Amino acid sequence: MMDCSRCIMVNPDPATSLIRISLASQRLELLREGRIEHSYRVSTATNGPGEQSGSGCTPCGWHEIRAKIGAGCAPDTVFVSRRPTGEIYTQELAAAYPERDWILSRILWLRGLERGLNRHGRVDSMRRYIYLHGCPDSEPMGIPRSHGCVRMRNADVIDLFDRVAASTRVWIQKAAFDKQTPTQPR
């Protein structure tokens, strides 16, 4: 079994990059130097926005990528507790484990940056294990269906993973993007 959790990739400068996510639009945008470089449809929490531990909600506010996990792993690699299991997702595997919340291909683990909103205590995004991650391609995008994380198509999360570095800033907001939405990292 390949230990793909320890692979390292060279990535762009996080000082010029920003990921922003709109829960209302179910859209993630990657900006570089204030310009949209790429846009992806995503699926955030069924329970909507919220920061409390155990809520099953997607946290809002400023975050950063705390860790990148899965470099070099095959698409559809299955992760449990941020470790590759050695399995590759298939419909047969899904049928054998229908209760699993599938985390596939890559993980971008988020750390909240705002004390009392998404960092420390019962609102800590990192302790809640909030990720951007791949999911089965049969899962719908553009519809809130996750348990708090931001789900992406496997090809999309691999693409995003290769475009960003650890410590890249992430802005998550309830509303659709507008002129007030940040375009630069904070």
Give a quick precis of the structure.
This protein has 186 residues and is mainly β. It contains 2 helices and 10 strands. A hairpin with a 2-residue loop joins strand 5 and strand 6.
Structural Rg: 15 Å
The average pLDDT score comes to: 93
What sequence of helices (H) and strands (E) makes up the elements? EEEEEEHEEEHE
Q: With helices defined by DSSP (H or I, 4 residues minimum), what is the helix count?
A: 2
Query: How far apart lie the N and C ends?
Result: 39 Å
Strand content: 25-35%
CATH architecture descriptor name: Beta Barrel
Low-confidence stretches: 5-11
Shape: globular
Largest sheet: 10 strands, mixed
Task: Please provide a written account of the structure.
This protein is mainly beta. The protein has a single domain (15-173), classed as L,D-transpeptidase catalytic domain-like (Beta Barrel), CATH 2.40.440.10. It has two helices and ten strands. The protein has helices spanning 91-96, 154-163; strands spanning 17-22, 27-32, 35-41, 61-69, 77-80, 83-88, 103-112, 131-134, 150-152, 169-173. Strands 1, 2, 3, 4, 5, 6, 7, 8, 9 and 10 form a ten-stranded mixed beta sheet that branches. Strand 1 and strand 2 (27-32) form a beta hairpin. The protein is globular.
How does the SSE layout of this entry go?
Layout: E1 17-22, E2 27-32, E3 35-41, E4 61-69, E5 77-80, E6 83-88, H1 91-96, E7 103-112, E8 131-134, E9 150-152, H2 154-163, E10 169-173
